[in-house]
């Protein structure tokens, strides 16, 4: 199952996504994931399940971020080669941080460069979408039963502020610093190794595989939920491979993951 979230005539819709000869189509409306209703009832009241909808290419709709999380939790330095490129030790335990949900950005929308930063980096990442509430996940549990699916995220980072601030809240948390999408799929298996690639203006900058995670998903879920309850729709960004680098206004960033399509965003100066 693949689904996306989009606006149609001003209403929020969920659509099932199909690959037809290499082009992604929204084949029909899909029900909103019921589990999310508790968190985002007001948002979902506009859900247009009964609206007339004609099948159309996904490129023709106004996509929204495919999830409405209660939180976005991220793993830093989860690929050995990326930890080393920034001169960091490979962590002994997962390194966690949050991005605020106000940072979420739709596919195709503009990443805004804050004036207070002189270096804004891309970080292409696999993002896990939670399917049900998870607290204190145990080693003998089926971790996959907690997972709704996967999507793509860009953990945009003000690299200079990350160093200057001594913690990462601002550097990782600016508005527009969490592009996500274009759709959620449960048809991929990160354990088998998904290729993660980032291109800037068409040039390949990152090429990694989720088979190279330092901490794999069951370890991450156990570690995180020992402390924090994850809720349906929550996003877990799993870290970025080597090759991160700076962006400039006008750049187009594309993150492509096998089976999950391409997340494309363009960079612009901070809005007035
Ligand atoms: Mg990251």
Q: What can be said about this structure in brief?
A:
The protein is mostly beta strands. The protein contains 5 helices and 20 strands.
Task: Detail the topology: elements first, then pairings.
Layout: E1 2-8, E2 11-20, E3 23-30, H1 41-44, E4 56-57, E5 62-64, E6 72-76, H2 80-85, E7 95-99, E8 104-105, E9 110-113, E10 120-122, E11 124-130, E12 147-154, E13 157-158, H3 159-165, H4 169-173, E14 178-185, E15 195-200, E16 203-209, H5 217-225, E17 235-237, E18 245-246, E19 252-257, E20 261-269
Parallel strand pairs: 6-17, 8-14, 9-20
Antiparallel strand pairs: 1-2, 1-5, 1-14, 2-3, 3-4, 6-7, 10-13, 10-18, 11-12, 11-17, 12-14, 15-16, 15-19, 19-20
What does the model show?
This protein is 11% helix and 39% strand. The chain is mainly beta and 272 residues long. It folds into two domains: 63 residues, no CATH class; 198 residues, Fumarylacetoacetase-like, C-terminal domain (Fumarylacetoacetate hydrolase, domain 2, Alpha-Beta Complex). Strands 1, 2, 3, 4, 5, 6, 7, 8, 11, 12, 14 and 17 form a twelve-stranded mixed sheet that branches. It has a five-stranded mixed sheet with strand order 9-20-19-15-16, with no helix packed on it. The protein is globular and about 55 Å long. About 6% of the residues have low confidence.
């Amino acid at each position: 199952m693949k689904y996306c979230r989009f606006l149609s005539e001003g209403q929020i819709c969920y659509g099932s996504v199909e690959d037809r000869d290499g082009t992604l189509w929204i084949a029909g409306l899909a029900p909103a994931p019921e589990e999310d209703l508790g968190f985002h009832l007001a948002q979902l009241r506009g859900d247009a399940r009964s609206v007339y909808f004609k099948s159309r290419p996904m490129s023709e709709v106004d996509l929204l971020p495919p999830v409405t999380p209660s939180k976005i939790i991220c793993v830093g330095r989860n690929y050995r080669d990326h930890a080393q490129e920034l001169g960091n030790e490979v962590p002994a335990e997962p390194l966690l941080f949050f991005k605020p949900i106000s940072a979420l950005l739709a596919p195709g929308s503009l990443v805004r460069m804050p004036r207070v930063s002189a270096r804004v980096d891309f970080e292409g990442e696999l993002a896990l979408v939670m399917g049900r509430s998870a607290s204190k996940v145990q080693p003998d549990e089926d971790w996959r039963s907690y997972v709704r699916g996967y999507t793509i995220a860009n953990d945009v980072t003000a690299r200079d502020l990350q160093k200057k601030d001594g913690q990462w809240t601002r550097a990782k948390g600016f508005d527009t610093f969490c592009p996500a999408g274009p759709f959620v799929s449960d048809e991929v298996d990160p354990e088998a190794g998904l290729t993660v690639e980032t291109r800037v203006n068409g040039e390949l900058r990152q090429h990694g595989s989720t088979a190279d995670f330092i901490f794999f998903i069951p370890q991450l879920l156990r570690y995180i939920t020992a402390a924090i309850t994850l809720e349906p729709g929550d996003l877990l960004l799993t870290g970025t491979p080597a090759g991160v680098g700076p962006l400039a206004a006008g750049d187009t960033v594309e993150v492509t993951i096998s089976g999950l399509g391409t997340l494309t965003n363009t960079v612009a100066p901070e809005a007035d």
